Amino acid sequence: MNSQILLALLTFAAAIISFGVFMYSYAKLKVELLGSNSVVSVRKGFEYHDQFIGILFGNPKNFPIYKKSANKLAQGYKLTFKIFLILFLLCLIQFVLIVKSI
């Protein structure tokens, strides 16, 4: 197997793992901010979805559901998303370069 393909597959596997970690940190942040019923209740989970996207891309202190106690979880939430995004884009670039070289 070509080393480029193997490296791209390993990067893809790392991206999948980092997405799982991102979703886990999202669930932990959601439980911290909304309580344990938020994971079970579909309606309550989607009711604040825009605020979780705002916490991801903006300043968390600007949203009413934010608590100061969740500061470390919010930082981890943002960091795991950035890592996933970088790995996904790197994987995409690797696959494009492989296809162009064929």
How many helices does DSSP assign? 5
Distance between the termini: 14 Å
Q: Which range does the strand content fall in?
A: under 5%
Total number of β-strand segments? 0
Reading the helices and strands in chain order gives HHHHH
Unreliable spans: none
- Cα-atom radius of gyration: 17 Å
Shape: elongated
The helicity comes to over 70%
Mean pLDDT: 86
Largest sheet: number of strands, sense, barrel closure: none
Helix/sheet category: mainly alpha
Structure description:
By secondary structure, the chain is mostly helical. Helix content is 80%, strand content 0%. The two termini are 14 Å apart.
Features:
elongated, about 100 residues, mainly alpha, single chain, 5 helices
Question: Helix and strand layout, with pairings?
Answer:
Blueprint: H1 3-34, H2 37-40, H3 42-47, H4 49-57, H5 71-101
What can be said about this structure in brief?
By secondary structure, this protein is mainly alpha-helical.
